[in-house]
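Field notebook, page 179. I keep forgetting to write these up properly, so this time I am using the form the group agreed on. The chain and the ligand, iron/sulfur cluster, are recorded exactly as supplied. Prediction of the bound pose follows.
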Amino acid sequence: MKILLHICCAPDATTAYKRLSESNEVVGYFFNPNVQPEEEYLRRRAALEKLAKIWNFDVIYPEYDPQRWFKSVKGLEDLPEGSKRCQACIAMRLRQSAIFAKENGFDAFATSLTTSPHKDVKFINEIGIKLSQKVGIGYIPSVFRKQNGFLESVNYCKELGIYRQNYCGCVFSLPKVLI
Ligand code: SF4
C-alpha cells in the first residue's frame, strides 16, 4: 500500500516509519501548525529532514500556518493538556492529512502520534477511522508505542543524534519556565 504518514515529530516518526515501511511505501507529511514558536517548528522540521535524509524517505512539508491552528482550538485555550483542546488539535491535523492523502493518490493515511506514551491512542484511532469514512480514504490504526515502540524511538534518536523536544508543541504546553 502507499501510505501517507502524518508525522508529528522526528522522534515519533522513527518507530512509526520503521514499522510501516516494512511492508508499505511510506511518505511523510509534516503538518503541525500547532507548534510554537516558529523557531521550535523549524527545529522540529530540521530534525525530521535529518532523519529522512539518513533513512532515505520522502516527506512533504505543507506551509506553516499557526493562525489556522489557533482558529481550530478557539474557546478551548484554557483547558489542560489531554483535554478537548488536544482532541481538536489532533482532529485538525488528521483531517488535513486524510484530505491530502485522498487528493494525492494514497491508499491510506496513518499517524506517528501513537508512538508517544502521552497521547490518547483510543481517541486518535477513533477519529482516524471517522475521518477515513468521511473522506473516503483508508486509515491504518496503530499503537506504535506498544512492544517497546517508545523505547525504540528514544534509542533511534540517541543513535542518530535526532533532537527530542521537551514539550508537546503549542504555546499552552510550553514549560512554565520558558513562557
Ligand atoms: S498540548 Fe499538544 S496535542 Fe494538546 S493542543 Fe497543544 S500541541 Fe495540541
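OBSERVATIONS:
- The first helix runs from residue 10 to 21.
- The chain has one domain: 2-178.
FOLLOW-UP: compare against the apo run.
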